[in-house]
Amino acid sequence: MNSVVSINSIRFFVLILIQVLICNHVNFLGYINPYIYVLFIVLYPTKNNRILFILLSFLLGLSIDLFSDSGGIHAAASVLIAYARPVLLRFSFGVQYENYALKFENLEFGSKLVYISLLTIIHHTVLFYLEIFSVSKIILILQKTLFSSIFTILLCMLITIIFSRKTK
Length: 168
Prior knowledge:
By secondary structure, this protein is mainly α.
């Protein structure tokens, strides 16, 4: 249990540092940014306390907001996907999630891709809608959501493949 807490604590701080120091300064074509801090919410253990998880997601988003001076939009998007995560887990993994036999390293690639894609697209839609906050600019919101989501999904999948421990 202690190793799970330490791994998640390290992951929390490392993802904040990478997001703030590197990813916030990546700006392709003026509006494509990766938001890899979502990976903390993706990889958080399913059996842990849900209220603690939502609180940690809020603190994750709030710390990104503090460094980015973005007024709470990251916190709102992070809390939303943390709250919706059980539904998305059930949709993506089905019986494996119901039986709590979920180990992210052992899951098939397609299910992981669907799960990460759904979380990322929901996160980015909320994030960019709150950032722009105008229905008249829906095309810009969808454009930023689409391209930033693709970039974030590719980076998150690459990171999970590189840093996964394959257990058989």
